[in-house]
Amino acid sequence: MSPWLILIPLGVFGGFIAFVWHRLAVAPGWRPPWVRYAVAVVLVVLTAFAFAGFDVWGGSFTPAQMRPVVWLGQAFLAACLYLFLGLGAVWLASVAIWFVRWRHDHGREGRRRLNRVASPLVVAVAVGVTAYGAYEAANPSVTRFDLSSPELPAEFDGVEVALVTDLHAGAVRSADFTQQVVDLVNEQQPDLVVVAGDLVDGTAARYSPELAPLADLEAPLGVFATPGNHEMFEDTVNWVAAFEDVGLDVLRNESVTLQQDGASIVLAGVDDATGEGVFAPDYDAALVGVDAAGFTLLAAHQPVQALDVEGRGVDLQVSGHTHGGQMWPINYLVPLEQPMLEGRADIAGTPVITSRGAGAWGPAIRVAAPPEVPIITLRRS
User: Looking at residue 102, what is its pLDDT?
Assistant: First the structure.
């Protein structure tokens, strides 16, 4: 990709910041001239903080030193979503007044009064929603599902599977949050833990310490992992090695047989759909030798991957990736890419349970999409 293409999103975001500045500082017609300068300074500083989340300063500072700045900058990006929705609505109302009052100075004074009242209100609502989203994102909880299958051996009836996805440890989320999720999982005493991708953002050299608490995950049938699309973005080889270093059994286009009381089921893991070359998903390799009469559990990061295992004997696929939309109203856009948003659904005849994820990508903010760790109880039907 040409480095010049980065100018497109930068230009769009710069235009948005200019729009916010105009709606907050110019359109209301505030009399003190310093208001315009003060709003501009605040927006420039918060924008600089937001870019800190992309490691623009390299290794000059440690992740711990940068985390407060990055957290605030990323929270500002989340607030921008609600500023866009609110200030956009105010702008449309202003345009309507302009048309209705076009014979009377285009309703100039009416538009100013509207902006003086509505614009600060939009800021207050955006800040309030973002603050609520920070609280929601900081408190993952357990959700429970039952999955019944006639192929499940009686010896595995009642086995509980913990599904951990989308931690997104890195510049915003530290090892403390990882430990919080690990403690939540271990409190449930699951029989099996499946970690289905997007554990990290960034490079392993800088952020692998944030995953260290994963070594504390406990389950008698094992703790297994598959990579997600964020592991495919960069440093894939080193991230897979980092997962293994903390004791995760990484399943990359392969399967393992789990045994209990003389009976067995198959757990398969496949690389993410975005992987290329040696990291491309290979469903034939992952499901080789699968017995249609037995029970097979597939870990695949994206729910859309269920379309590629139709008729291959998969009895349950567990996934993440969607974040449940993470922040309303983004949830309405997820179906453009994925066949499901969250929870349980049948995709091409395969039961799929998709987690909203335990963490959050970018801003540690969730609105109407609370973080979760699903506990799936397997039942013989």
Answer: 63
**Shared domain check, 332 and 222:** yes
Is-above-0.85 flag for pTM?
yes
User: How confident is the model over 144-155, as pLDDT tens digits?
Assistant: 999 999 999 999
What distances in angstroms separate CA 172 from CA 120, 225, 230, 232, one per listed residue? 28, 22, 15, 19
Look at residue 234 and tell me whether its pLDDT is greater than 60: yes
* 126 and 185 housed in the same domain: no
Could you give the CA distance from residue 36 to residue 243 in angstroms, rounded to a whole number?
A: 49
Which residue type occupies 3? P
Q: Looking at the 3D structure of the chain, how many domains does it have?
A: 2
pLDDT of residue 256: 97
Q: Can you read off the two tokens belonging to residue 69?
A: 């700045």
DSSP code string of 213-233:
GGGG---TT-EEEE--HHHHH
Domain region containing 117: 3-136
- Give dist(CA 71, CA 69) in Å, integer: 6
